[in-house]
């Protein structure tokens, strides 16, 4: 059977959940409904067909270790939930630090002080034979993400940007054009959890709009206890993140952009609560106007394991990206980006429609 040779940039909690998840579901029966998976098989690829061939990080606590060990190295706190081999045969290699480590996170991440060139990263990916590379850098890693976007293309692989830096959805069009010229697939941006805060918020807003309720104001406040939330305590690192999460929700409404411009929308990380660990708690408030201008107010709370939600979506995105690579799709892959990312190149009118696009792409009914 064909395999998907996958590499990871950023061996944090998301990577831990993803690496373990492949082994957790490697024998899943595609003829049954399997909790946690939207698709056991995507085209020719079963979950178990994903194999890890390379990993890159900047932490001295992870560099030089086998990936099987590095995913549990501090400050990672994702628990072990799957039986994985003691050794995966993948040694974590150093990448450039650039802006990947916020000043207040240096002690916790313990970054190396080596100079790592673009050529060295390209060689690492080429030597591993990486076909699909996933970017799981911390929020705010703008320069570092662009570095890896270039390195992955130079290595001849598909790039999946799991972070809120606008690569696949680059408003200037540079990165989409760059990947088109390289003849490689580009997927992103900012991975959206299977049943996370963004998709839940979008669904509530869409329901109100569909039922004739005019949304007047809304907020989504998120708290969690992992390094992702600690990293996001620096508001200056959150510019792209807030845009990504906000536009994912306001795009549902024909007047959503106007609502945001009036300051009636507030979406994004709110605080770091260490004892929550990987648990993410999201609070939602939506105020609308219904028949005869009577008010409607929705308040809700969602509690999820933050990183497993991302892993579930990324498992499908990886297989979608590999199918695009197999078919020679170049540039942004709309049908893989729309259902699994908050800020895709094209927002689908609903998550149901985005899911339909993905299935049609896998079946060969949509070109990208």
The major beta sheet can be summarized as: 7 strands, parallel
- Note the run of SSEs as H and E: EHEEEHEHHEHEHEHEHHHEEEHEHH
Q: Helical segment tally? A: 13
Give the uncertain stretches in residue-range form. Answer: none
Shape assignment: globular
Question: Which strand order spans the largest sheet, edge to edge or round the barrel?
Answer: 5-4-1-6-7-8-13
Mean pLDDT over all positions: 97
Structural class: alpha/beta
> Strand percentage, roughly?
15-25%
Number of strands: 13
Q: Measure the end-to-end span.
A: 24 Å
Q: Could you tell me the radius of gyration in angstroms? A: 20 Å
Helix content: 25-40%
What does this entry look like structurally?
The chain is α/β, with parallel strands linked by helices and 368 residues long. The protein has 13 helices and 13 strands. The chain has a seven-stranded parallel beta sheet, with helices on both faces. Strands 10-9-11-12 form a four-stranded mixed beta sheet. The protein has a two-stranded antiparallel sheet with strand order 2-3. Helix 2 links the parallel strand 4 and strand 5 (93-94). The mean pLDDT is 97.
